[in-house]
Write a structure and sequence with these properties.
Largest sheet: none
Bound molecules: iron/sulfur cluster
Distance between the termini: 23 Å
Strand content: under 5%
Structural class: mainly alpha
CATH topology of the largest domain: Fumarate Reductase Iron-sulfur Protein, Chain B, domain 2
CATH superfamily of the largest domain: Alpha-helical ferredoxin
Number of domains: 2
Order of helices and strands: HHHHHHHHH
């Protein structure tokens, strides 16, 4: 099954890239992990198609800091491309387990992390308990973003 990403990103913009590598050279994710560099991502999309990229779990190592885009001399909206690729990856089930768990927790509890000991810790520091999370509101927001089309919530 091929899922199109080009309705979310203008593919023609990739042809503006002249592979100078300023983006990849500035990428903090590349400093700490074997991430997929933005220059490489564009090259793979052009040469092999985006299907190849969305199957690669390294796509999720990008922290969407936008530095690559800020430094691109061609003003290519690289982050838009990366987000479109991730959305496509998530629709195929290529989503990191921990991220999937955080989303499920958010949908169930209104928070993306377990906070059962938090009230205890807050009390220890003289702080009031956390107010209840607006779970229904959070679920509504998640649905309005279309997340329920990507992951069961
Ligand atoms: S900085 Fe821009 S032009 Fe240079 S490789 Fe990256 S995307 Fe291409
Ligand atoms: S947005 Fe992602 S790819 Fe671009 S510099 Fe930041 S971590 Fe690297």
């Amino acid at each position: 099954m091929t899922i199109k990403i080009w309705k979310f990103f203008q593919r023609e913009q990739l042809f503006e890239c002249y592979q100078c590598a300023r983006c990849t050279g500035s990428c903090p994710a590349m400093e700490v992990a074997p991430a997929l560099g933005p220059r490489e991502t564009i090259l793979i999309c052009l040469n092999q198609g985006h299907d190849r990229v969305v199957e690669d779990e390294k796509l999720w190592l990008c922290c969407t800091c936008n530095v690559c885009e800020d430094r691109c001399p061609q003003e290519i909206p690289i982050c838009d491309l990366l987000v479109a690729l991730r959305n496509s990856a998530a629709r195929r089930g290529n989503i990191p387990i921990r991220l999937g768990m955080a989303i499920e927790l958010l949908a169930k509890t209104g928070r993306s992390m377990i906070v059962h000991q938090l009230d205890e810790m807050r009390a220890h520091h003289g702080l009031a308990p956390l107010p209840p999370a607006p779970v229904d509101e959070v679920r509504d927001i998640l649905k309005k973003t279309g997340l329920d089309e990507v992951i069961e919530i």
